[in-house]
Amino acid sequence: xxxxxxxxxxKGRMGAVIxxxxxxxxxxxxxxxxLGDDLNAALADSDVVIDFSFHxxxxxxxxxxxxxxxxxxxxxxxHTQEERAELLAIAAKVPTVWAGNFSIGVNxxxxxxxxxxxxxxxxxxxxxxxxxxxxKKDAPSGTALMLAESVLGPRNLSYDDLQHGRExxxxxxxxREVGMxxxxxxxxxxxxxxxxxxxxxxxELTHKASSREIFAxxxxxxxxxxxxxxxxxxxxRDVLGLK
Length: 243
Ligand code: NAD
Known about the structure:
By secondary structure, this protein is of the alpha/beta class. It folds into two domains: about 5-100 and about 210-240, NAD(P)-binding Rossmann-like Domain (Rossmann fold, 3-Layer(aba) Sandwich), CATH 3.40.50; about 105-210, Dihydrodipicolinate Reductase, domain 2, CATH 3.30.360.10. The protein contains eight helices and eleven strands. α1 (about 15-25) links the parallel β1 and β2. The structure holds nicotinamide-adenine-dinucleotide. Nicotinamide-adenine-dinucleotide binds near residues 9, 33, 57, 102 and 138.
């Protein structure tokens, strides 16, 4: 079924790839919105908004979509936990798919990370590494935070257990710590590794993205899926049927 899509962040790296992917899949781009443009007018003629822009734009996008009763696909990252909680409450009023990463491979990596974090004892210290291109504006990446949640949940840990970098951290590493490390440089689309290190061995789970198309394909698939769903916030796993 062909749908009418409004893209917020149209002039960005992801906006361009999403437009191409959606058009190739037979959908129409009925809204091409970027900084300073009128989202409401463009969204009124569309079935769904796909937002890959900047974290300060998210509230406005969600409020417009709720006012117009339009489903939301959100891939924007960089929100604080407090902002995210407020935004989720708004997004729940319409059918929404919100994911820090729309690729099938990364969502499989999250699933495998949950299993490893559950099976391996805390003596297998968890560290998360991510690398992205030099223009990325937020750190750690939204994907690294998804992976962190995949470690924290099964181990009954909380966001307070995340250790961002090690500068100024005195003494030895504690077992409850989950290390987070961000690298930036060049044109890396997105590399993520979760490692579990104990004395004598370590397990490393890695995903490397070499094309933004993997995110665009997931976002367009989510847009096709979300139109006609009941209000509520869904995950990409719901879309992909990964439980
Ligand atoms: P980008 O900087 O290339 O593009 C962002 C675009 O948004 C720009 O054209 C900018 O002008 C526009 N913009 C900024 N504020 C706006 C506003 N208030 N209203 C409308 N447009 C606005 O960035 P990008 O690489 O395309 O990434 C965009 C976002 O998507 C980032 O948050 C990034 O982390 C995220 N991202 C998510 C996934 C995923 O799978 N969830 C994958 C890649 C990137």
